[in-house]
Amino acid sequence: MKENFENIYLRKDGRYEIRYHYGYKEDGTSNYKSVYGSNEKEVIDNYKRKIKELMIKKDLLIFDKSYIGYDINSWLDNSKIKNKKSTYSNYMYTINSRIIPNFAKVKKKAISLEIINKFTADLLNEGLAPKSVKDILIILQQILKNGGVNIKIPMPKVPKNEIQILKKEEQKQLEIELQSNMDTISFGIYFCLYTGLRIGELCALQWKNIDLENKKIYIKKTLVRIKNPDTTSKKKTIIIIDEPKSLTSIREIPIPDFIIPMLKNLSFNITPDTFLISGNEKFIETRTFFNKYKKVLKKINIDSYNFHALRHTFATRCIENGCDPKTLSEILGHSSVKITLERYVHPNYENKVIMMNRLKPLYE
């Protein structure tokens, strides 16, 4: 709705009407609502009052196209269609907590790099990690671009985190501990060490996704805890089992031969819907499983490793044993070999020592 209110309609019943954009219908077409008045001044006053009322309620569906709030709503509608529930939930949390309070009521013609840079500085001064601030700014950048505002937002420099890889002696120590107490929890940890599964993929894995005859597992779901979209609920978060974020994460993984007997030992009294690491039809959530994992590590005094270290370790051992990067990339569920090499496959210190000691002086 433009500010000059050029689309005021005189209805057949004698009333005046102003229509305003209110989100989108299920088929993707625009949805509209209306306010009425007995004359032009009254309908304009009623419209302004309605806009003010809904802005106070942070109802983004009503903003006209001159406000960034309108573009926030439009971007969210598109995001809900394109993304998984977990991704959309994260976007909603970021937008509600960071972007709406600072930008929803700002007019597009008033937005500037100065305003955005101040917003960035405030987030950093608040103590947010540069990576978190960058994620917020990327969403803001997409919203502005979607609304036709082309501002290149400077991103904070994010320090590169060193990935964790178990040393071979530590891995051996862990395997000895797991095999001496081989229940479903211990097996789950061991299984990730030799398949590279993410913790959410492991927690969602059911026996109907395990093919012992053909020695493969099918990764089709992941378990995640997300922000509760129901803001009226007392529960701030909920757990969902959904498809992985990317299509490449939906994959088949061959099971190493030496793991098959372990799986067979666990396959008694199960149904297709039995979860692998719980042994029944009720899942174990990632937080609970992670705590059990940390207890195992603490018992053998190597508790500084996060759970993703198992995935890093798996990838590194594969490369050490001659696995080609393309094969490993597909096993890990990455969209490109580049991601596999840059993010997950790094030489550890032991390999660096071996390589350095292969050097020989040309003249002795």
Helix content: 40-55%
**Total beta strands:** 8
> Could you list the spans in which at least 5 consecutive residues all have pLDDT below 50?
none
Summed up, the domain count is 3
Distance, first to last CA: 84 Å
| Count of runs of 4 or more consecutive helical residues | 14
Shape: elongated
Order of SSEs: EEEHHHHHHHHEEEEEHHHHHH
Kindly report the name of the CATH homologous superfamily of the largest domain.
Answer: Intergrase catalytic core
What's the CATH class of the largest domain, please?
Mainly Alpha
CATH topology value of the largest domain: hpI Integrase, Chain A
Calculate Rg over CA atoms.
27 Å
Q: If strands are numbered along the chain, what order do they take across the biggest sheet?
A: 1-2-3
Oligomer: single chain
How would you characterize the largest beta sheet? 3 strands, antiparallel
Q: What is the structure about, briefly put?
A:
The chain has 364 residues and is mainly alpha-helical. The protein has helices spanning 40-56, 68-82, 85-103, 113-125, 130-146, 168-180, 184-193, 199-204, 260-266, 286-299, 308-320, 325-332, 337-344, 349-357, and strands spanning 8-10, 16-24, 30-37, 210-211, 216-219, 222-227, 237-242, 251-254.
Please name the defining characteristics of this protein.
14 helices, 8 strands, three-stranded antiparallel sheet, 12% strand, single chain, mainly alpha, 3 domains, DNA polymerase, domain 1
Explain what this protein looks like in three dimensions.
- It is built from 14 helices and eight strands.
- Helix 2 (68-82) runs antiparallel to helix 3 (85-103) and helix 12 crosses helix 13.
- With 364 residues, the protein is mainly alpha-helical.
- The chain has a three-stranded antiparallel beta sheet with strand order 1-2-3. Strands 4-5-8 form a three-stranded antiparallel beta sheet, with no helix packed on it. It has a two-stranded antiparallel sheet with strand order 6-7.
- 25% of the residues are buried.
- The chain has helices at 40-56, 68-82, 85-103, 113-125, 130-146, 168-180, 184-193, 199-204, 260-266, 286-299, 308-320, 325-332, 337-344, 349-357; strands at residues 8-10, 16-24, 30-37, 210-211, 216-219, 222-227, 237-242, 251-254.
- It has three domains: 1-63, no CATH class; 65-154, DNA polymerase, domain 1 (Orthogonal Bundle), CATH 1.10.150; 168-354, Orthogonal Bundle (hpI Integrase, Chain A).
